[in-house]
Amino acid sequence: SQKIEQNSEALNIQEGKTATLTCNYTNYSPAYLQWYRQDPGRGPVFLLLIRENEKEKRKERLKVTFDTTLKQSLFHITASQPADSATYLCALDNTDKLIFGTGTRLQVFP
Amino acid sequence: DAMVIQNPRYQVTQFGKPVTLSCSQTLNHNVMYWYQQKSSQAPKLLFHYYDKDFNNEADTPDNFQSRRPNTSFCFLDIRSPGLGDAAMYLCATSRDFQETQYFGPGTRLLVL
Question: Residues of A with CB below 8 A from B40's CB?
């Protein structure tokens, strides 16, 4: 069956370190993958999109990789800050819609 | 600022009492989506409109209906809310399929 997996346990890291979040999928062949940030009680906010023919995408302190062989995307936040604390969702395209993962909660402490 | 607006932010209804949630957008996007999200779960797509074309997800209960009277507005009607329908309801838009989705702030529904 089709599945998207993100670490369900929270990731706790110290300010200034690099946070790395993982998104694994099975039985999908997405043309692209997106990452969203969601704060408690709010709607998700788009961060980055990476296509299947792109290995890596960067935006300021954010970096996303996409390995279609491993069926995995990694999301990195460098020089993390307490304001980066949120839940991060990956989403895969599936024809005319996105399929979301459950998200990983990131907590950055001073 | 162009945006996706959802009203109300919080909605309390009684078991079995019909409720309508609303979404409006100033982005002039073709596609509008409704998602249901329960605590610590992924947003689950209920249905979407591409312009006036409606697409219902196969596992969306009949209890959930939607209307899109024009490009800007989309409504989610829950005909007979049950306790299990308590959730955050998210509206999103995109210019076309396979493009970035822009989400509203959500409406949190409580069923008593």
Answer: 8, 102
Closest of A96, A94, A97, A89 to residue A5, by C-alpha:
A89
**Rounded distance, CA A86 to CA A65, Å?**
20
Residue A74 sits at φ, ψ, to 5 deg, of -115, 140
Residue A2 has pLDDT above 80, yes or no: no
Smallest Cβ–Cβ distance between B98 and the set A4, A31, A36 belongs to A31
The residue count for chain A: 110
Model confidence over B63-77: pLDDT tens digits? 999 999 999 999 999
| The pLDDT value given to residue A84 | 98
Distance CA A64, CA A72 (A): 11
* Tokens 């304001």 -> residue: A83
- Percent with pLDDT over 70 in chain A: 100
Answer yes or no: are the C-beta atoms of B112 and B15 closer than 8 Å.
Answer: yes
